[in-house]
Amino acid sequence: MQSKLLLTFVIIYMNTLFKHINQGEVYRRSDLEYYTTAIDRQLAQLIKGGKLVKLNQGLYYAPMQSKFGVVPPDDHLLVERFLKDEDFLLISPNAFNTLGLGLTQLYNTMWVYNHKRKGEFILNGKSFDFKLKNSFPQKITREYLLVDLLNNFESLAEDKKNIVDKLTRNVLSFNMDALMKATQQYGNGTAKRIIKLIVRKVLQHA
Description:
Helix content is 43%, strand content 18%. It has helices at residues 2-19, 29-32, 39-48, 75-83, 142-151, 160-170, 176-186, 189-204, and strands at 26-28, 53-56, 59-61, 64-66, 69-71, 88-91, 110-114, 119-123, 126-132.
């Protein structure tokens, strides 16, 4: 009798918890413990049943299926749940290759500019490098991307002289007002120095 009663309560709690889990969502353990008094046991059961995937300590994904298989969690949502904060900027160093400056290196990581955490974390098998920044824009523009490239100039495995030469020839393809503003607002010493030298040189020959 007692075992049947216990099983009934387990089923009720599992149903209550499962009703609050939506495919494609990322959850923290603390998000789900409101719906059950046996959170760890039920999380283990949901993982075993394929209803949840453990991404990191205390972080879970409710997998969404497509005709091609399991859809991975959205990077932005994943980082938001991990940080417990919406104030961050996701940027891939591979995006520098789109600036037309001859960059070719590929990087197997995402950078997360934020105000709370620092260090490299593996989330769902992907590398996220969390970097503390005083300020960053809400979205990435081409001009900001150039400034960020120059902010990270010394650490990139690229031919730096070639980049500066190509930027000198192509700087006027950028919105100059937006570039000046992004440089002043987000540029470090290296970025400001390079942009000033290039702009002065280009304007003298304009």
